[in-house]
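Thread: quick sanity check before group meeting

JM: Hey all, I'm pulling together slides for Thursday and realized we never actually wrote out the predicted structure for the chain we discussed last week. Dropping the sequence here so it's in one place. If anyone has concerns about the input, flag it before I start.
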Amino acid sequence: MGKTKLIPRWARKGRKSKRKSNEHFGVVDLDADSVDPRREAGGKHVVITSFPLAGGDPNAGGGLSLGSGVFPENGPVLFHPAPPPTICSNWSTASNFSGSGNISISDEEENHLNGGSSRGLLKSMKSKSKDIGKELKVDILSIKKDIAGMARVPISFVRKKSLFLRTADLVNLDHPYEEGTRIDLHPHYHRPSSDTPHDGVDHDPKEEWVALDTGEGTHAPVAPYAVDALAKSGFDSAMNRSMWTLNRPSEKILARSAAWSAAIWQMKGKVRVPPRGSADENDVLVWSGNFTHGLYGSDLPTVRAEGVVNMAPSALVDLLLDNSRVYEYNKMSLGRDDVLVLQDDLENDGPFGQSITKVVRSASKPPLVRKSLEFVTLMHVRKLEDGNGYLIVSRAVTQAEEAINSDGKVMRSEILMGVNIIRNVEGDNNRAIMINVNHIRSPMIPMMIAKKIGLSAAVGFFTDLRALC
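JM (edit): ok, ran it. Output follows.
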């Protein structure tokens, strides 16, 4: 006895596929023309189908058998699944089916499948299904969902419209899409690549990039792993004592204030800070440092600042995320707009965890500068692991086609690493302690004064926020 499978019409021998080679994989839709029903009276039909994997020849038997069964046009069906596939465990398979194998098809039944009447085959399959005792009554929508999970989702990657993120310095980037599997991996889309987003970016073999999105409004598969690594790296850099050197005024603050000495490197829990109305309440402690990874921007200084803001942590996060309120704490701002929102939910799990993840475009006009400065930046917000506050990380993104900045009237600047750690204060829900890290590259700022400007801006940011309390 042999086993016979009906393959989709477009994949049959003797017919040329109308699909491109990179479309030889995909989701099987039971309502689509790619499934060939053998109908009989009453609207019932039998489907035994397979579909090819990525890059495979649909006529070469490289398909994945889904199983067999009796499918009414509406309502419950009888379905006998094939054994679960074992290829590439990183990809989804149908896990809700518990059948142990295909139904064996006799020579007579094979004749029915090859053009004979389907009535006898239907009767035989019903009988065999009862004998095996593996009848599964499932809703037609459930079958569609599980079949979709077994197929590799077709790649839709409009590269020239995508946004790209630097990732070579993110040591925590641990993605599941490794080379050498049977499934072709696309650079930037599934894994980091040293290829630059466009010719205007200098190629560095030590640099890596990932695509944040497909160019059509949805995230690339590797993007959640890259954003998670950015969040971890941002937090670690902010709390890495060995990276930072306290400036002289801040040394004097710590010398006189025991409250600040205990608070500045606290990793978890609510923080005890100087009380309201005290002389220390309006202090800002400032550090300078450098990233030592030796990659893009490591030659530029970075600044860490810490202080108290008399505002609830959640309210402070809302303020920093609200595009319409940027001017309230940044008088040089010319506005900020969302370019792409990948996720907008801090309470429910999504591809990026429980987070708000978006790309924004902002512009500012410093005094005595002819051109405005433009930043195109990923912002990712999540709750701290212990639940006592929030983490915001930011990093510049690059578009494959620099359409965002095409008029030459602005000068592109970059946030290489931006971090805001906003913690709850012990005994006062309407106060927050905030740690900021700013690592910025701007052609407008000469290297010799970059550190001085950064230290001054760090203190000024707290001053402007406190004016809103």
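AS: nice. Confidence is low (pLDDT under 50) at residues 1-65, 83-118, 132-140, 143-152. The longest strand covers residues 333-350.
JM: adding both to the slides.
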